[in-house]
Amino acid sequence: MENDPGLTPVDPSQEEALLEKLDKNGITFFQQLRRKKKDCMSAILALRAELAECEQRIQEEQEKLGIEDDGLDRKAILNRGIVIFNEKPNKGIAYLTEENYFEAGGTAHEVAEFLSNTSDLTKQAIGDYLGENKEFNLAVLDEFVGLHSFHDLNFDTALRRYLWSFRLPGESQKIDRMMETFAKHYCQANPNVFHSTDGGFILAFATIMLNTSLHNPSVAHKPSLDEFVSMNRGIDEGKDIDRPLLEEIYASIAKTPFKIPDDDEGLSIMFFNPAKSGYLKKEGGTKKTWKDRWVVLKDSCLYYFRDKDDESPSGIIPLLDVRAHLVADDKGKKAPKGPGFFFELVGADDGMGGTLPIKGCKTNSKGMVVQGNHDRYLFRAETQHEAEEWVHGIMASVTRQPFFSMRRHSSRSGLPMAEATP
Predict the structure, then answer these.
(1) Which of 160, 400, 403, 417 has its C-alpha lying 20 to 30 A from 322's C-alpha?
(2) Is 46 part of a structural domain of the chain?
(3) How many Å apart are CA 380 and CA 263, to the nearest integer?
(4) Same domain? 292 vs 195
């Protein structure tokens, strides 16, 4: 399971407390940062949806031409499935099943592993899917919780990890089912903690309520340890929960509130498990100056950040009809001093003697997402091997539009291109 609290967004209750401490200028700046982050996420999702659509078109054209490419087909199906799932979870799983993405036909265990291991799924969509009161969804929920390892974990630690793997839906009946399944698996992994599953189920709810009471600024009364212990008397088949366990939970929650995934965390998970990442020097678009940038290659996109720890990219390059290749060290390009090995991204051949545009975008000084000023992107690596790895990785991730691919093939083979029909 993927559980990385280091990339956790600020909890909403913590944000409220922070805003209370800021002056008017500080609040405005903070809100601008939040808007910038949301704009970046929207731009990334739109680009990924466009890439998924292009890959779907490629697959359809290949089928018409009798071309087989299982690797591309599977990648295109996955990317398309992710886009659909994040919008309508049930339809996303149905699409993947119909397209034979799952090797065993889409069993509950396969779908649970997909939800657990696919980094680009939003946690809200995962929570919505797991909360459905349908036989198959309930089976997936059981398998999904079973993928967590709760053995010998403190109760609140196990609950934190569980709640970090998806976003709880708002409906109480859905929450009931999800917490009941958690309690069942926790009790199976730790049979000596509770007398019954009901005890774990009720304590899970009590722990969530404690977190809200202690850390939500709008809640005036903060329960004491003794009040928390008193509230949980007799909840385990009429027996009391061991006081040391309740003291441990109270101390942990009081010190560190739950970090609940929100819509922004989707921007963080987008960059897990990249095909390649590392620092490169990048030439500017308008001003031909060189800056260090943290570059991430993932899912047919190249992202660059001002620093490795930044959550939002400063630029996005969709790898749609582009070429990457090594270039010579040209001192006339105001290259930085010292040894270096260069590679560039340019638009692919359009089949008519020109090149296709690169659809890059970036954030400007006001935090707005705008069109980039590049007809090419030039990067410098520290070694020849590193530059070659970047070129190979980028070219392996490039998506090509069928129309231009066929036009290039036609021009090279001497075959006439059919006119497009409206």
Answers:
(1) 417
(2) yes
(3) 35
(4) no
Of the chain, the percentage scoring pLDDT greater than 70 comes to 68
CATH code of the domain covering residue 296: 2.30.29.30
Q: Say if residues 324 and 343 touch (Cβ distance below 8 Å).
A: yes
Q: Which residues contact 112 (CB under 8 A, 6 or more apart)?
A: 140, 143, 144, 146, 147
Measured from the Cβ of residue 411, the count of other Cβ atoms closer than 10 Å reads 16
pTM of the full structure: 0.58
Domain shared by 219 and 334, yes or no: no
Q: Are residue 249 and residue 280 in the same domain, yes or no?
A: no
136, 9: one domain: yes
Concatenated DSSP letters of 134-186 = SHHHHHHHHHHHHTS--TT--HHHHHHHHHHSSPPPS-HHHHHHHHHHHHHHH
* Count of domains for the chain: 2
The first and second tokens of residue 375, run together, are 């007809």
For residue 245, what are the domain limits? 5-255
Could you tell me which residues are beta bridge partners of residue 347? Answer: 322
Q: Is 304 found in the same domain as 233?
A: no
Per annotation, catalytic residue among 171, 180, 265, 389 = 171
The partner residues of 377 in beta bridges, in order of sequence, read 345
Give the pLDDT confidence of 59-94 residue by residue, as tens digits.
Answer: 666 666 655 555 557 877 888 899 899 989 999 999
Q: Is 301 helix (H, G, I), strand (E, B) or coil?
A: strand
Question: Residue 353 contacts by C-beta under 8 Å, 6 or more apart in sequence?
Answer: none
Closest CA to 397 of 322, 314, 286: 322
Phi and psi at residue 178, in whole multiples of 5°?
A: -70, -40
DSSP secondary structure, 352-397, as one string: SSSBPPP--EEE-TTS-EEE---SEEEEEESSHHHHHHHHHHHHHH
The answer to whether the beta carbons of residues 110 and 104 sit under 8 Å apart is yes
The verdict on whether 386 is a catalytic residue reads no
Q: State the amino acid at position 117 in one-letter form.
A: N
Contact 101, 76 (CB under 8 A): no
Say whether pLDDT at 224 is over 80. Answer: yes
Considering the domain boundaries, does residue 19 fall inside one?
Answer: yes
Q: What is the pLDDT of residue 204?
A: 93
Residues 306-355: pLDDT tens digits? 888 777 778 888 887 788 999 876 554 555 555 579 999 988 776 677 77
